[in-house]
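Problem 12. The chain below contains 382 residues. Write out its predicted structure in token notation.
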Amino acid sequence: MTRHKIRLGMVGGGAGSMMGNLHRMAAAKDDNFELVAGALSSTAERAAVSAQAAGIPADRSYATFEEMANAEAARPDGIEAVAILTPNHLHAPAARAFIERGIHVICEKPMTANLAEAEDLATLVAAKNIVFVVTHSYSGFPMIRQAREIVRSGVLGNIRSVKAIYFQGWMADLESAGANAGPVWRTDPARSGIAGTVADVGSHAFHMARYVSGIELDAVAADLSALGSITTLDCEASMLLRFKGGAKGSLWCSQAAAGHTNTFDLAIHGSKGALRWSVETPGELHLATVGRSPEVLTPSSEQAEELGHWTQMGLTGLEHYFAGFAKIYEDAAELIVAYKEGRAPDLRAALSPDVKDGLAVMRFVDAAVRSSRANAAWTSPD
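Solution.
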């Protein structure tokens, strides 16, 4: 796809980081990117150790993202894109540092720690006209993209309801053990931002509901709950959704759901049919339409080949997750190359979440928090 490997930098994701390894593996697939620089950890010493392990030259390991942005922008062979994998509170300042220097950004979700940062970032991206991709990873799953195509083809008719759940149980494990959250940044308001679970996994659930259905949120009535022994941030949320055009929905997310590791289900109902998908069987998309027997759709031969790459690497059971991330990096590469060549990108590359999607998610998170504070009053994200 690319004429040369895109020079990539990375902020965060140092030694011991699962997400760091995941991003590096996704970026390396198909030889689209070459990791050449990084500010991988919070201290220069740890950053140097992480850089060596990742194959980054010692002179391109930086103590801070500010130092990295300045130095790489000044190099003739400086990075062309940067992946930001830090805790939420650093997403916006790190992204801004690179955007202002014309460097494309691949950013972990949620895009920012609060809505004001998201709005400012969206304005800056538009002004600088750079590529900005948010790694809502499930949007790269083969069957999720197929579900999106089915909805847009009109097979389901008019969308009437969208329902999503996302359950994890790691906070319940901490509570049961009588432990506190310790240094986990997701439970720290200073690092997580305005929300906890709603920002972490609720953002995935909402993005998927919007991504597949193609409809926009009109209002939310949310009830957020915290486990005081773990964090003051929300650990669970139940909410009703109203979409523009009349569709209704619900979203329930929790990281204190005892017994759950990673449960994520999405259902969309229309006037002519319905779709149902679960992360527990990610290679199956259940389709039911009026007058026909229900179907179970599975990946195409091309998609199966992509999944097979990760299976062969010993990632059986996680191949959809790795393939999803790799697809987002593949899309990002095409968007960056098209930008450089002054042409329109392949339409499929535009399926990856961008800054507008990141902003829509943060508007949802902000509205959910405001609604809960107002006793679950219906609250608009606009």
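Discussion. The first helix runs from residue 18 to 28. Students who got a different answer should revisit the alignment rule from Section 12.3.
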